[in-house]
Write a structure and sequence with these properties.
By secondary structure, the protein is of the alpha/beta class. 31% of the residues lie in helices and 22% in strands. The chain is built from 13 helices and 20 strands. Strands 2-1-3-4-5-6 form a 6-stranded parallel beta sheet, with helices on both faces. It has a 6-stranded mixed beta sheet with strand order 18-15-16-17-20-19, with helices on one face. Strand 15 and strand 16 form a beta hairpin. It is globular.
Length: 414
């Protein structure tokens, strides 16, 4: 039986998509050892030009090792045709073809099956290889058209997964011992808009399923936090951390980025959520074209006012085919990096302040790994907890009442 290795690049949605492909692979052996594989399926990311370069480099390496390489994921849509025509890969399969992977991998001749950008996965995922928590893709695609983003063009427009199918998946995974569920998708806050429902209503129903201990949400947009979402904010199973995407704190930059949020309303929303006890994360891009020194200074001063604890920030990376790619004036890379470092330091400091202020609150931790003689997991605020214990805590839920707040995480003995 031939062995297949899956190499996953990019986001949580790709983690889910890889698992869907694994579930549909019946006539092959899945290996976690790349060297032992006959076939490598590359679930690619194309969010930036740099992501494309990383995928292409990996494919070149795998091909030189004599592996049969299949490219899937977003890169299959944006770069699959050129890779296939250059004979860099044996096969290309689009998002809609994941359920056909077993048939496609049995083919003796090269294939290019790009499929469509309108379908939804029908596969029910029962387990996650090597994971302590379960990822649930609740929707696909995005109706936003931010100027720097290629993803709507490789994932399609927003469409919601059937609620009954999501519930069935969570029920089965809960029965298999999973207690933490991470809801993911291209733009999860758009869930239900095409079905007369909403993200808040869906999450309320998932929280009622026996065995669900914690629900974590992927990134949501400020404009997507509606009344039905506010109704779940006090639920004990909702993680006390929300990731709400700002991308910037200058009104001018939000216009250039074609964003739908507004700085004044954003600050009001974050203040409201912080007062309800939430740790708050966000996305931020530095160095986007048009970010002058004056705009940057204003944006930084505004960012200081936000009660943030976590940050997913990066310097702007040109993505061919997007409106931002042709915008002027461009910002020099070293300036963008300095701006990135400054906001990372700011939010790191805010995170320390948050943890010190709340250190009387017991931490509910799902232990995910054992490394360097310590157990490592994340608490309800999505902060890292490093635990020393003589017990085997791997994949266990533990409550930590006494801990020391340090830069790299909260330290505890258990």
């Amino acid at each position: 039986m031939k062995k297949v290795f899956f190499k996953t690049f990019g986001c949580r949605t790709n983690i889910y998509d890889t698992q869907v492909m694994m579930e549909n692979l019946t006539d092959f052996e899945i290996t976690e050892n790349e060297q032992n594989a006959d076939i490598i399926v590359v679930n690619s990311c194309t969010v930036t030009n740099g992501a494309d370069t990383g995928v292409r480099s990996y494919i070149n390496h795998a091909t030189k090792e004599g592996k049969k390489v299949i490219v899937a994921g977003c890169g299959a849509i944006s770069k699959g045709e050129s890779l296939f025509n250059q004979k860099k890969v044996f096969g290309v399969m689009g998002h809609s073809e994941k359920s056909q992977i077993n048939t496609l991998l049995k083919q003796d001749t090269p294939f290019y099956q790009i499929g469509d950008l309108t379908s939804l996965d029908e596969t029910i995922v029962h387990e996650y290889t090597g994971k302590t928590k379960a990822f649930i893709k609740i929707q696909e695609g995005c109706n936003f058209r931010c100027s720097y983003c290629i993803i709507p063009y490789v994932r399609g427009n927003a469409r919601s997964q059937d609620e009954a199918k999501i519930i069935e998946q969570v029920q089965k995974l809960a029965l298999n011992g999973y207690g933490e569920f991470v809801l993911t998708g291209t733009n999860i806050g758009s869930y239900g808009k095409d079905k007369g429902s909403s993200l808040g209503k869906l999450v309320q129903r998932l929280g009622a399923i026996r065995g669900v201990r914690r629900i974590r949400l992927g990134s949501i947009e400020p404009v997507q936090i509606d009344d039905s979402f506010r109704e779940i904010l006090s639920e004990p199973w909702l993680e006390r951390h929300l990731h709400v995407a700002l991308q910037h704190t200058s009104e001018r930059m939000l216009e250039l980025m074609r964003r739908r949020n507004n700085v004044k309303r954003d600050l009001e929303l974050f203040t409201e959520l912080s007062e309800r006890g939430f740790a708050l994360g966000t996305d931020f891009i530095t160095g986007h074209p048009g970010e002058s020194e004056e705009i940057w200074q204003e944006a930084y001063a505004t960012l200081e006012k936000f009660p943030l604890t976590h940050l997913h920030a990066f310097t702007y990376s040109k993505r061919d085919g997007t409106p931002s790619a042709t915008m002027k004036p461009e910002v020099k890379g070293d300036i963008a990096k300095e701006r990135l470092k400054s906001i990372e330091a700011l939010i790191e400091s805010k995170n320390m302040t948050f943890r010190a202020k709340n250190n009387a609150i017991p931490l509910n931790v799902l232990v995910e790994e054992f490394k360097d003689d310590h157990y490592i997991g994340y608490d309800q605020f999505f902060n890292k907890v490093i635990i020393q214990s003589s017990r085997d805590l791997l994949k266990e839920w533990v409550t930590i009442e006494k801990y020391e707040v340090k830069q790299e995480g909260n330290y505890a003995h258990f």
